Amino acid sequence: MLSTPGSAKASSDQQAQRQPLLSGEGLPLFEAITPEQVDSAIPALLAELSDELSRLEARLGVHGGESDQPRPAIGWEDLMDPLHHLEERLRWSWGVVSHLHGVCNTPELRQAYQNQQGAVVAFGSRAGQSKPIYQALQQLATQPLDTTQRRIVEAELRHMQLRGVGLEGPEQEAFNAATAELAQLASQFGNHVLDATNAWSLTLSSEEELDGLPESLRNLLAQAARDAGEQGWRLGLDMPRVLPFLKYSRRRDLRETVYRAQVGRASSGEGNNRPLIETILTLRLEQARRLGYANWAEVSLASKMAGSVAEVEQLLHDLCSAAYPAAEQELQELRACAQRHGAPEADDLKPWDVSHWAELLRRESFDLDAEALRPWFPLEQVLQGLFGLCQRLFDIRIVATEAGEAPTWHPDVRYFRVLDGASGDPLAAFYLDPYSRPGSKRGGAWMDECLGRTNTRAGEPVLPVAYLICNQSPPVGDTPSLMTFEEVETLFHEFGHGLQHMLTTVERPQAAGISNVEWDAVELPSQFMENWCYDRTTLMGMARHWQSGAPLPEEEYQKLLAARTFMGGTATLRQVHFALTDLRLHSQWAPDSGQSPEQLRRELARTTTVLEPIPEDAFLCSFSHIFAGGYSAGYYSYKWAEVLSADAFSAFEEVGLEDEEQVVATGRRFRDTVLSLGGSRSPAEVFEAFRGRAPSPEALIRHSGLATEPV
Question: Phi and psi for 390 in degrees, rounded to 5?
Fold first, then answer.
C-alpha cells in the first residue's frame, strides 16, 4: 500500500496519541506535543536507539574481528538500511521538537529543548564515532556499488571522519564535549537574538511620527499596538515592520533610533552574544585542529562543492571588484537625490538613510512605488501564480486541503498536496506557514524536511513532505496579506527548495531530495525560482488587484524590469561583506590573532563596504546564519549557488521565454535533473546534465547589472 502524506496505520495513530513524539512516522500531531512530553519521550527514545545501535554494532562485528575465518561480505541491507531507519527515527522525533522550537517558541518549550539537546548531540557523537560502523562502511566501499550508493558511502565515511571517528581517548572526549557545547551555544545565540528582537518596541502616538508611512504599514503598526493593549502605533524589530519603516519614514530621528536598535541586538546585558562569538570561534578552531585541519573553514569545505578557501576567496574577490565601483556610484546618486530634496543629511548620509533615499531615487528613476504594488500581490493570487508556473514547467498539480485534514501547529498554517500532472498520482505534500509572529517564531524564511522520500520498515513507500516557513506581512482586519515584491521573491525562493525536496526520484533516502547535496549547491533551485518573478507570463498571470481583479498595468511591469538591477552593486557588495567576514573569521581569526572578531569584520569593511559601519553596529551579534545556523564558513554558498542558478535560468532565456514549447521542454529537463537527481550525483554532474556544459558566471554578472560590456 502506498503511504501517502497524512495517512497512517491505526496502530501508529494509537501510539501517536499516547506519545506523539515516539510515533516516528507519518505527520506529527503538532498540537498534542507538549514540553513535558519532550522531557519524557526524548530520553526514552535515545535509550531505545542506543540499544538498537549496540545490536547493529554487534551484528556488524561478525564481519570483523581477529578471526582467521573468511569474512562475509558487507551488504547494503546489512548496514545502510538499518542505519538509515535508526537515524530516521531520531531525525523524525527531534526534528519535530526543533521545528516547534522555531515556529512556536515558548519559555517552557525552550527549556525542554535545552534539557534534551545535550543528550541528542551525545548520541549523534556516539553513532558518528562508531568504530564497527566505520569499519563496515570501509568494507562496503570495496563492494560493487552503483553510482548513488558509492556517493552515499563516501559521504558517510567523510561525515564520520569529521565527527571524530579517528580520534581516541582524551582527544575524542574533548572533541565530544566541545561538540555538545557548540550545540548549546548555538541554541543560546539564537535565543538571545529572538529575545532581543521581541524585547524592543517603540510606540508612536502622533501623526507627525507617522510621516511618510504607507497605509499598509500604519495598519500593521496599529494592529501591533492593539495586540499589546496599547493606543497608537507600535514599532518592532521584526522584518515586516522594521524594513518598511526604514524605507518610508521621513522622520530621520526615528529611523536612526530603529536602525541603532536593529544593529545593536543581542550585544549587551544578559543576552549579550559577544562572548559567545569568541567562544564558538575558538571551539571550532580547536575542533578543526583535532581533526587535522588548519582551521574550521577547511572542515566546512571538506564536504562542499568549492575546492578550497582560496577558490572561494577568488569568487568573492571577483564579485567585489565588479560591485565596489558600482556601489560607490550608487551612494553618490543617493547623496545627489537627498541634495535635490534639500535634505540636511545629503553630505553625510548614514546607514539609516540609505533605504529611505534609495526608495525615493527608485521612484524618481523608474516612477516605481514598491508599496503601491502591494494590492496586486495578495497571497492567494501569488500562490496560484506560483502553482501555475510549477504546473507549466514541471507538470505537477498543487491542491489545497480542507482545514483539519492534516495536523498543524497554528491556525495560519495550511497543507497542500502535490500531484503528478499527467496521472494525478500523489507525489508529495507541504506545509505553508506564511506570516510573521514576532513573539514565538524566529525571523527569516526557510524550508525544512517533515518527511523524506523513503520506505517504512515494512517496505511501504513514504512520500516527502516539506515545511515552508516565511515571515511576510500578515492580514490586517479584513485586508488579506498583501505582499511586497520582495516577499513574493522570498516565497518563490523557499518553494524552490521545497521542489527539490518533493520532486526527487532517487530511491535511496540518503541521497533523495536535498539529502547529500553539497551545501554550496543547495541554493540552486531556490534562487533559480526567484528569476520567474520577473517572467512576463508568470508575473502578469498572478499580479491582479485584490479588490478589482484588474491585472498589473503594463507600465508597472516594465518599471519592475527596469528596476531589477537598481542598487545591484550595493546588494552584491553586502553579500560579499557577509561572506568574506564569515570566511575570514573561520580561516584567519584565532584567540591569539591580536584582534577581536569585531575588529576583523571592521577591517574587512574598509574594502567591502562604501559606508562605514557605525561604532554601535554589532551585526555579528545577530549573525544567526553562521553562529546559530548551518552556514559557518559557508555563507558564500548564496553567491556560489547564484552562479549556478543564474546560468540555469539563462537556458530558458536562450530558447526564448515566449517560446512555450521550448520553455516547457527545458522545464521538464530541469525537473528530470536538478529537481530529480538530488544528492545522487555531484552538483557539477547534475548541472552539466541539465545545461550540457560546466557553469559560467556570465549570467549572474549580467542579471546583477554589473557587466561593463556585453557578456
Answer: -65, -35
- pTM for the full model? 0.89
Instruction: Give a yes or no: residue 708 inside a domain.
Output: no
Q: What are the pLDDT digits (tens) for 312-321?
A: 999 999 999 9
Per the annotation, the verdict on 345 as an active-site residue is no
Q: Which three cell numbers stand for residue 330?
A: 550608487
Give, in order, the Cα–Cα distances in Å from 641 to each of 236, 526, 527, 644, 690.
33, 9, 8, 5, 15
Q: For residue 35, which of 104, 119, 123, 121 has the smallest C-alpha distance?
A: 104
Across the range 164-179, mean pLDDT stands at: 97
Q: Phi/psi zone of residue 306: left (φ > 0), alpha (ψ -120 to 50 degrees), beta?
A: beta
- What is the CATH classification number for the domain harbouring 35? 1.10.1370.40
Res. 16 pLDDT band, cuts 50 70 90: very low
Q: Which of 494, 518, 523, 642 is catalytic?
A: 494
Cell of residue 91, nine digits: 531525525
- Determine the Cα angle at 489 with ends 483 and 493, to 5°: 130
- What pLDDT is attached to residue 14? 47
C-alpha cell read off for 320: 567585489
DSSP character string of 87-140? HHHHHHHHHHHHHHHHHS--HHHHHHHHHHHHHHHHHHHHHHT-HHHHHHHHHH
Domain count, the chain: 4
Q: Are residues 378 and 420 in the same domain?
A: yes
In angstroms, the first-to-last Cα distance of the chain is 53
Among candidate residues 148, 20, 58, 225, the one with its CA nearest the CA of residue 517: 148
